[in-house]
Amino acid sequence: MICNAPEKKIARTQSRPALARERARIARELLADCRLCAHDCGVNRLAGETGLCHATAEARFFLAQTEVSDELELIPTFAVALSGCDMRCDFCITGKESWNPRAGLGFSAAEIAERAKAALADGAKTIMLLGGEPTIHLPAALEFVSHLPADAKLVWKTNAHGSAQARELLDGIFDVWLADFKFGNNACAQRLAKTPDYVRVVRDNLLWANGHSELIVRHLLLPGHVECCWRPVAAWLAENLPDVKVNLRSGFWPAWQASRHAELRHTVSVLETQRAGDIADEFGLPLIP
After folding, report:
1. From CA 84, how far away is CA 67, in angstroms rounded?
2. CATH 3.40.50.720 is held by the domain 16-283
3. What is the pLDDT at residue 135?
4. Residue ranges covered by each domain of the chain
C-alpha cells in the first residue's frame, strides 16, 4: 500500500531560528549532566567526561552533501551526518564514523548552514540531520538550525533512542522525524546493538514524534530477523500508528562488525523479502519507497 497522507504542520509561537538558538544554549548547559539519550549516563561532558557514546562537548561531522538515497518524498536532501552514536549496532554501514565521535571534521554550524542554503538554492527539497546519532550532539544541531531559513523543510533522522529531555528541546524544530525502529524485541537489541530497554524507549519516542511532527518510520530488514523483529514492529505500528508512513528497507549489507553474528554474514534472501512484504500487507501498513 502506498501512502499519500497529508503532511502535518508545526505550530510555532516564535520563529524557528530564534527558538533553536534559545534551545541550543539550554542544551549545551545540560551537557554538564548529560541525559540526552535513553542511556541516562549523567556525565559532565563540559568537563571532558564521556558516557556510552564517548562524545565530548564539541561536535564533529563526517558528511555534508546532497544525497538522493533516502525516501523519495525527501530527496534530494542536503544531509549532514554528525560523528558518534549512543547505540552500537554491529551491522552499521557507517560504523567507523558512527561509533567514533572524533571522526571527521570539527562542526561549524554557521559554515555548514551556508552550504545547506546553497544546496536549497540548487534544488534540494530538504535539509536532513543524521549521524551516527544527532541527539547526542543536540546543542550543535540546534545551533545549525538557528542559521537556516525559517521556511526550510528540516528532517531529523534518528535512531529514536533519545530521552524525554531531548524531545522537549526538539519540539517545534523539525518538520519530519525519520525514525528507525530496528528491533522488535529487547533481546535482539541487546545482542546486536548493546542497547537495553530498546522497545519501550523507541515506542515512546515514536508516539511523541507522531504528535509533534510528520513521522516516517524506517525498518531495515535483517537476515534471520523477519519474524522476531519485523513482525512485532509491524504489528505495533498497525495498532498504534496505523496512518504513519513506513519504509521497509531490504538493502542490508554485512558491513562493519556484522560477521560477529552468524545470521548477519549474508544479505536478506528473496524469500525473506517476500515474507516481509506479506507481513506488511497482513497488517495494512502504508508503505512508501
Report:
1. 20
2. no
3. 98
4. 16-283
